[in-house]
Every structure is written in structure tokens, then in C-alpha cells.
């Protein structure tokens, strides 16, 4: 099998790249280890920056997003019995849209298949070869058989546990990393959201986040221990903990309902540099991870491939190598801005150490500063909605 750009992974990064290449008349094949139903149901991020929404719309895949996405102009911060709304749109002129990652994935798969694109599901890439030649290849397994995809370039969009990053020779990549001593227990509930905007809560018992997917479905998160056992969290315990951490404003209460799904997400910050080696280009979670507090993961993945799409277009269209050569450095500027913002939000909102009241007082002082300084609130808001140029 042969194509121009071989893409490993059908997450937001790989699918969007394949779609953008198609718009430029460049062929690609996407290899995905999981089945279509699995990737279309995988519950993950939910917040799209304005830049991501604009990118999806410009690429002609924003129709359902426009119809069903929930546009938000602010977020609420709750802490120490106080509450403050960050008026994001008033401060920045920009907004965010709540639209599940799996909906973005469904829209992109539909667009690729409608255009005759090739996505090979249940197809696991096992090895990348000849990345330092003009004809790199991806070895993969499909229906129990070993096969090979030859291409001009490989895009490694296969997430944190993928095979691509490991194909770079030892000594080339540098890893910067931080792990946090907690995880998020995330639930999806058949309960109408009690609010129209997201609530980020700093509480003595740990962080809580109130989000949503639709007028009928709530999405909620609780800070828990990294080795928490989900079996120890029956519905009533989850609701009780959410009530304690979120019902801190007089007269406000949660809407409860059956819990449809629950999962545990470890919290990690990671950057691997550079994002390119020879003819291998890495994008999204394959090279950088952020803790979800800043809602940046999916947005960064889309921003990476927007750059890659332009870079491949310049190479195939005009024989230019400049954008391919500058891809890693350009992408890393945004990556590090998001790393800082995600670390900052995480540090401000979670109980880092239950026995450190000094740390807690610093958090409350920071949150009060956001609530009283237009300059500081603007800094949070412009990072949250996404900076157009970094
Ligand atoms: P992915 O979406 O991970 O896509 C990679 C794809 O590659 C997957 O489909 C995988 O099956 C496939 N793959 C892997 N290895 C191979 C192989 N060898 N061969 C073929 N295919 C392969 N972000 C937030 O902002 N908020 C959240 O609440 C949030 N929750 C998350 C929960 C979890 C459990 C995880 C893992 C991430 C979460 N994120 C969240 C982060 C966000 O979802 C990611 O940043 C985003 O998915 C990155 O997209 P991607 O395309 O780079 O990678
Ligand atoms: C959601 C996830 C996030 O990580 C976040 O910061 C905000 C919202 C969500 O899944 O809705």
C-alpha cells in the first residue's frame, strides 16, 4: 500500500490532519488501532477554544458543531464560600464552545468517508521504518496479517501510548515532565445542567468541576487520589461529594440523575522535543500532555495539525521546506504557553497537600486577585479562550 502522508491514529489530530490534507489535494491513509465504534464513543475533552471552532468551520466540518455546540461567554470560579464569574467574552471578545471530543471525531470521520478517504480501523501500527529516507514506511497488523504502508511522510498522531514517538533514535528527544499527586474521577450523568456555564471549584476536600454536554447531560469531575478504586465510588458517594464541593453558594443546588459513565484520568504534564525527526512529524498527545484543568489537550492537538497541514501544502504545492522545518519550533511556542496555563490552573484549584495551609492561602489569594483585578482576570480569560498568536 502507498500514500503521500501516512497517519498513525484517528484521534482529533490524525483525523483533522487527514481532512486538511484532502482540502489541499494531498492523499493520506489513517491507521487506527481501535474500532470505529470505540473511537466514536470514547469520552474525553469537551471545550473548544474559539480558534478550534474557527478552524473546524473553515475546514467545512463545523455544521453540527454550530447547531449543537454550546457557546459560553464566561466561567465561574468558586472558592472559600465566594464565587466569581470570569466574563471571558467581555474581557477578550472571544468565547469557547462546549462540544464533546467524540462529536468532533464523529464529524471528522463522516467527512473523510464522504470524501472517499481511507481510515483503516482495527489496524495497529507496530513499527516505523526508513524515517530518514525519502520513502518511510509504517508496518501494521490488520486481520491478523502483517502489512506495510509506504509514504513520503509519517504523521505520528497516536497519542501518549502510541508507537511513533518511540521510533525516534535514542538521544534525539528531550522529555520535560511533571506528575501530580491526584487524578480526576469523571462522570457523565443524565441530569439537566443546573447552570449555563462551567464551574471550577477550589474546596478543602479537593477540586470539583461542573460541565455539561447538552441541555439534558451533565459532565462532572472530582479530584481524587491517583490510585483511587472506582468501585469505591457508588453513585450516592459521587453525588454527595459533588454536593459538598460545589454547593457552596447560598440557594444553589445540583441536579442529580443516573450516572451513565465513570472514569479515572491521571494528571500529568509532559513535553517531548523536538516534534519532528527527519520524515516523522509528531502531533497532539503523542508529544505533549497537559492536565485537563485548562481544557487545552484537544485544542493543542488541532493547533498542531493546522500547522502541519499548511506545511505539507507548501511542500507538495511549491516544493517549499520552510514550514516543515519550522513546524516543531512554531508548535512548541503554543505548547509551552498551554503547559504554563494548565499547570497554573491546576496548582490554583487542587488540594496539593492537605496539610499545607500556607499553600491553600496562596490559592485563595490568587483566586481573589482574579476576582478583583481586571488585568489578572483578562490573563486567565485570554489563555482559556485561546491566544490566536503565541
Ligand atoms: P488521541 O485522541 O489519544 O488519539 C490517538 C489515537 O491513536 C487513538 O485513537 C488511539 O487508539 C490511536 N493509536 C494509538 N496507538 C496506535 C497504534 N500503534 N496504531 C494505530 N493507532 C494507534 N482533555 C481535556 O481537555 N479535557 C478532558 O476532560 C480530557 N480527558 C481525557 C481523558 C483521557 C482518558 C485521556 C487519555 C485524555 C483526556 N484529555 C482531556 C486529553 C484530550 O482528550 C487529548 O489531548 C486529545 O485526545 C488529543 O488528541 P490526539 O489526536 O493527539 O490523541
Ligand atoms: C471539560 C473538561 C475539562 O478538562 C475542562 O477543563 C472543562 C470541561 C469537559 O469535559 O466538559
Automatic annotation (TrEMBL):
InterPro entries: FAD-bd, FAD/NAD-bd_sf, RIFMO-like. It holds the Pfam family FAD_binding_3. Keywords: FAD, Flavoprotein. Gene3D superfamilies: D-Amino Acid Oxidase, subunit A, domain 2 (3.30.9.10), FAD/NAD(P)-binding domain (3.50.50.60). Residues 2-341 form the FAD-binding domain. This is 4-hydroxybenzoate 3-monooxygenase.
Amino acid at each position: 500500500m502507498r500514500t503521500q502522508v501516512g497517519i498513525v491514529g484517528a484521534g482529533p489530530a490524525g483525523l483533522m490532519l487527514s481532512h486538511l490534507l484532502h482540502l489541499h489535494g494531498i492523499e493520506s491513509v489513517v491507521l487506527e488501532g481501535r474500532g470505529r465504534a470505540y473511537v466514536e464513543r470514547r469520552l474525553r475533552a469537551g471545550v473548544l477554544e474559539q480558534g478550534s471552532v474557527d478552524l473546524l468551520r473553515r475546514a467545512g466540518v463545523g455544521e453540527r458543531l454550530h447547531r449543537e455546540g454550546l457557546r459560553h461567554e464566561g466561567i465561574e470560579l468558586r472558592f472559600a464560600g465566594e464565587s466569581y464569574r470570569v466574563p471571558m467574552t467581555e474581557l477578550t471578545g472571544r468565547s469557547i464552545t462546549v462540544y464533546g471530543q467524540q462529536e468532533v471525531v464523529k464529524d471528522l470521520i463522516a467527512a473523510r468517508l464522504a470524501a472517499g478517504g481511507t481510515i483503516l480501523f482495527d489496524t495497529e501500527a507496530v513499527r516505523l521504518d526508513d524515517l530518514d529516507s525519502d520513502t518511510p514506511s509504517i508496518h501494521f497488523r490488520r486481520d491478523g496479517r502483517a502489512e506495510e504502508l509506504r509514504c513520503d511522510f509519517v504523521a505520528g498522531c497516536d497519542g501518549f501510548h502510541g508507537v511513533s514517538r518511540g521510533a525516534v533514535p535514542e538521544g534525539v528527544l528531550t522529555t520535560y515532565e511533571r506528575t501530580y499527586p491526584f487524578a480526576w474521577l469523571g462522570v457523565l450523568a443524565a441530569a439537566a445542567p443546573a447552570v449555563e456555564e462551567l464551574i471550577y471549584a477550589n474546596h478543602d476536600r479537593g477540586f470539583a468541576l461542573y460541565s455539561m454536554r447538552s441541555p439534558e447531560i451533565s459532565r462532572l469531575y472530582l479530584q481524587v487520589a491517583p490510585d483511587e478504586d472506582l468501585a469505591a465510588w457508588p453513585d450516592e458517594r459521587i453525588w454527595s461529594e459533588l454536593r459538598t464541593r460545589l454547593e457552596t453558594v447560598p440557594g444553589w443546588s445540583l441536579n442529580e440523575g443516573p450516572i451513565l459513565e465513570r472514569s479515572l484520568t491521571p494528571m500529568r504534564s509532559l513535553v517531548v522535543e523536538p516534534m519532528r525527526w527527519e520524515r516523522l512529524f509528531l502531533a497532539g498527545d503523542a508529544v505533549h500532555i497537559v492536565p485537563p484543568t485548562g481544557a487545552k489537550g484537544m485544542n493543542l492537538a488541532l493547533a498542531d495539525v493546522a500547522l502541519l497541514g499548511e506545511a505539507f501544502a507548501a511542500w507538495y504545492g511549491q516544493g517549499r521546506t520552510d514550514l516543515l522545518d519550522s513546524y516543531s519550533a512554531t508548535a512548541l511556542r503554543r505548547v509551552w504557553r498551554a503547559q504554563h496555563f494548565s499547570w497554573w490552573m491546576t496548582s490554583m484549584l487542587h488540594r496539593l497537600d492537605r496539610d499545607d495551609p500556607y499553600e491553600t492561602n496562596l490559592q485563595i489569594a490568587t483566586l481573589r486577585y482574579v476576582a478583583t483585578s481586571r488585568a489578572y482576570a483578562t490573563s486567565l480569560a485570554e489563555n482559556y479562550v485561546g491566544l490566536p498568536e503565541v
